[in-house]
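Hi R.,

As promised on Friday, here is the backbone we talked about, encoded as structure tokens. Could you run it through your design pipeline when you get a chance and send me back a sequence?
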């Protein structure tokens, strides 16, 4: 890896028998800190060390990205006289499998209780995605609970109960309150018609109806000596 251009204090030395860039920090704090000045020097040096580490990490990532791109472009797949990258061919095969499953899979599964076809090099099939309650796009569980709290005042009621039990102190003095949404409970309430979809939407929740999903899994490929490393 090349030397960082911003390292003005870099010099070349042998480290453990290997040539390396040895950086000299702009300040060097003492091994044992005795004063606020020493503490500030240590913070100054720590800031520099972290800065240099970030530059090295960025340079390493650039080298990795470059090597990855070179390696990927080195290997091409020849299909019907046309070249494509491995990533492009993978995407094409997945699209072909998806199209076939959408058009023809049902006919092959009519007599298959497991709703899948096991083939020599993998399997294709359908699986049922159960009804579920989910946070709507861009909504976090905390956002949902905050809306519920503004509507119902959960935190206030819990503090009222706690105050009756432990006197003038509030629960927040002793316990960090971290509520969690029960998606299973919400699903059960929806299925029992105790809450409707419109109400769930009001609080940033959505209903994912039960549906069938196609899937395909290729078997692990058995490599040989002619495969690229």
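Update: got your reply. Pasting your designed sequence below so it's all in one thread:
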């Amino acid at each position: 890896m090349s030397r960082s251009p911003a390292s003005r204090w870099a010099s070349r030395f042998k480290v453990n028998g290997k040539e390396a860039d040895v950086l000299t920090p702009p300040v060097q704090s003492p091994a044992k800190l005795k004063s606020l000045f020493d503490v500030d020097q240590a913070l100054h040096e720590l800031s520099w060390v972290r800065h240099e580490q970030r530059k090295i990490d960025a340079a390493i990532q650039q080298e990795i990205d470059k090597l990855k791109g070179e390696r990927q472009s080195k290997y091409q797949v020849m299909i019907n006289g046309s070249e494509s990258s491995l990533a492009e061919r993978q995407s094409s095969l997945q699209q072909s499998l998806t199209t076939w499953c959408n058009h023809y899979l049902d006919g092959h599964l009519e007599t298959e209780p497991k709703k899948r076809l096991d083939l020599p090099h993998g399997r294709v099939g359908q699986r049922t995605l159960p009804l579920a309650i989910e946070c709507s796009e861009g909504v976090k569980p905390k956002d949902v609970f905050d809306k519920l709290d503004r509507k119902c005042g959960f935190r206030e009621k819990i503090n009222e109960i706690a105050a009756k039990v432990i006197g003038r102190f509030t629960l927040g003095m002793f316990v960090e309150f971290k509520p969690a949404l029960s998606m299973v409970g919400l699903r059960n309430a929806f299925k029992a018609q105790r809450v409707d979809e419109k109400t769930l939407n009001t609080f940033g929740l959505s209903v994912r109806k039960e549906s069938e999903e196609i899937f395909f899994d290729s078997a692990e490929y058995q490599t040989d000596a002619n495969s690229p490393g």
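One thing I noticed while checking it: Strands lie at 10-15, 18-23, 76-79, 82-85, 116-119, 122-129, 132-135, 205-208, 211-218.

Thanks again,
M.
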